[in-house]
């Protein structure tokens, strides 16, 4: 069979090109350390590499998100710690204000100090995070959450939402808390009911915050607007003080006639039970309180269901009491303020504990993410990393193949009939 010279050239060049391509590809594998350079090298393996790479990239994004969440919660925790310290300082001032030796000027000085704390609290409540977003405005990160509409009155401009960040495939974490939950929606009094002295009282009676003996019984009561009325019979020696408990319609729940002497005799500091005694009509509100010292004839004390009171309102009421109050009225106001401040501090500590719990959870998720990252790296290595010993051997073989193809081509191209005749 005769083979034309052009065919010999084509076959030789084709062989050299194949060997060159194989050598170049092997060199690329060695230089990159990868056995899969294109999907054609291993379609199944390449698909698996793509899948694992995407999972790894997503895991890395979750790690970035977790870091951002930790930063945001860290800033909130710092702000809440400042609020807690401020409330404790205010509480100390309120206790000091109860010193009977303080005159009006001393109390006014304390009130001025508290006004500074009030503005400081407002500033903390309007704190921003590292991204310039307000921490306590709910979803409305660009809206200032709190604004003072008038002296002592603070409005909340945010919403009830909590901003969330995805920190794993199955977990979103809240990185903010609504300011209304932190600073405003706090029950006053003892958290169930609130006691207060009547504004027109002239005696020295001091009312306690009271305590709840049976929450279910208090919850079942329909009329939670009660008043304790005092009467003093000065025609006898010593004078006898009696009291009645009336509902919102001014009807005695003790079965009294509504006029002195009232059904129960008062003893300073003794428990005033909102439960029937002796021949009284049966009732049980599940709560009790006490009143100390000497209420005057006509003095009243109220017992009402607790309502939401903001930290700002509590602080402003305390300031007003220091500026205008005196004597027993001021003492009752201070007791009320201390009770409310305790509730405020408990709320802040509760939210702060929640923040700490979330930060702990993020730490756990980040640890799991780190383990996943190692697994992804190992899987990718198994799928695409090169066996260098085998690769070097293949590279050497390809080099020899190329050299053989080149040398054979040189020899073959020199063959012709004329060379044979010569």
TrEMBL record:
<dbReference type="Pfam" id="PF00669">
    <property type="entry name" value="Flagellin_N"/>
</dbReference>
<keyword id="KW-0282">Flagellum</keyword>
<dbReference type="GO" id="GO:0005198">
    <property type="term" value="F:structural molecule activity"/>
</dbReference>
<feature type="domain" description="Flagellin N-terminal">
    <location>
        <begin position="4"/>
        <end position="140"/>
    </location>
</feature>
<dbReference type="InterPro" id="IPR001492">
    <property type="entry name" value="Flagellin"/>
</dbReference>
<keyword id="KW-0966">Cell projection</keyword>
<feature type="domain" description="Flagellin C-terminal">
    <location>
        <begin position="339"/>
        <end position="421"/>
    </location>
</feature>
<dbReference type="InterPro" id="IPR013384">
    <property type="entry name" value="Flagell_FlgL"/>
</dbReference>
<dbReference type="GO" id="GO:0005576">
    <property type="term" value="C:extracellular region"/>
</dbReference>
<dbReference type="InterPro" id="IPR046358">
    <property type="entry name" value="Flagellin_C"/>
</dbReference>
<keyword id="KW-0969">Cilium</keyword>
<dbReference type="Pfam" id="PF00700">
    <property type="entry name" value="Flagellin_C"/>
</dbReference>
<keyword id="KW-0975">Bacterial flagellum</keyword>
<dbReference type="GO" id="GO:0009424">
    <property type="term" value="C:bacterial-type flagellum hook"/>
</dbReference>
<protein>
    <submittedName>
        <fullName>Flagellar hook-associated protein FlgL</fullName>
    </submittedName>
</protein>
<dbReference type="InterPro" id="IPR001029">
    <property type="entry name" value="Flagellin_N"/>
</dbReference>
<comment type="similarity">
    <text>Belongs to the bacterial flagellin family.</text>
</comment>
<dbReference type="GO" id="GO:0071973">
    <property type="term" value="P:bacterial-type flagellum-dependent cell motility"/>
</dbReference>
